[in-house]
Design goal:
Layout lengths: L1 E4 L4 E4 L1 H9 L2 H31 L1
Antiparallel strand pairs: 1-2
Length: 57
């Protein structure tokens, strides 16, 4: 289940439902993939920095 928080409600969709919605808008699919890569890289960088700080701290 994927939870999507909006201002006044929360949506709960299955992975299949999200894929179905995204198939109707390939540009949105590409944007979401690019955004995901950026977010994952930032998390990895942050985690590396945190671990390096623990080693030196």
């Amino acid at each position: 289940m994927i939870e999507i928080r909006l201002r006044k409600c929360r949506l709960f969709l299955t992975e299949e439902e999200v894929e179905h919605l995204l198939k109707h808008d390939p540009e949105l699919w590409e944007t979401a993939l690019r955004r995901g890569k950026v977010v994952m890289r930032a998390r990895q960088r942050s985690e590396r920095q945190r671990r390096e700080g623990e080693k030196h701290g």
